[in-house]
Amino acid sequence: MAAVQRSSRGGRGRRMMNDINVVPYIDVMLVLLIIFMVAAPMINPGTVDLPSVAKSTSPQRPPLEVILKSNGDLLLRQRDKNGQSQEQPINKNDLPLRVAELQREDPELAVVIAADKSIRYELVMQTLSSLQKRQIQKVGLLVNPENAP
């Protein structure tokens, strides 16, 4: 009887392959690449039709300005259509009530907060928050157009 030579594991003596054949994967990737290259020019990119707005013929009313000075003073500036302005000092607690009263008279009146650049941002946000709590509509921040991006 002939002795059958066995490996230490008890198998037939075949060695395990420790590398992966990647050629089929490369072939599949090349076929997919060709399909996408052929199909890409046929796809129409989505276009967005934006609405157009005509220029308003009626002159826009200047906004109501809430001015925060660097020393903490609050001013309320109203401008008329001729550009004449009147400023009045106002208390922080009376500001939302006064602005709400002015917006009841004119619902289209916009409000902007003009703060000195050295003032803490927290004070600006507190003012904005107090106006929003009273349901003041159309509130924004005024910036200097020369320094705007």
Plain-language structure description:
This is ExbD/TolR family protein. The chain crosses the membrane at residues 21-43. The model has no long low-confidence stretch (mean pLDDT 79). The protein has a five-stranded mixed sheet with strand order 3-2-1-4-5, with helices on one face. Helix 2 crosses helix 3 (121-133). The protein has a domain at 64-141: 2-Layer Sandwich (Nucleotidyltransferase, domain 5), CATH 3.30.420.270. Helices cover 28% and strands 16% of the residues. The radius of gyration is 36 Å and the shape is elongated. Strand 1 and strand 2 form a beta hairpin. It has helices at residues 23-39, 95-105, 121-133; strands spanning 64-68, 74-79, 85-89, 111-115, 139-141.
Could you outline the blueprint of secondary structure elements for this entry?
Blueprint: H1 23-39, E1 64-68, E2 74-79, E3 85-89, H2 95-105, E4 111-115, H3 121-133, E5 139-141
Helix pairs in contact: 2-3
Strand order of the largest sheet: 3-2-1-4-5
The parts where pLDDT drops under 50 for at least 5 residues are: none
User: From the 3D coordinates, which CATH architecture of the domain at 64-141 would you assign?
Assistant: 2-Layer Sandwich
* CATH hierarchy class name of the domain at 64-141: Alpha Beta
- Helix-strand string: HEEEHEHE
Task: Output the radius of gyration.
Answer: 36 Å
Q: How confident is the prediction overall: mean pLDDT?
A: 79
CATH topology of the domain at 64-141: Nucleotidyltransferase, domain 5
Q: Number of DSSP helices?
A: 3
Q: Could you say which structural class the secondary elements and strand pairing correspond to?
A: alpha/beta
* Sheet having the most strands: 5 strands, mixed
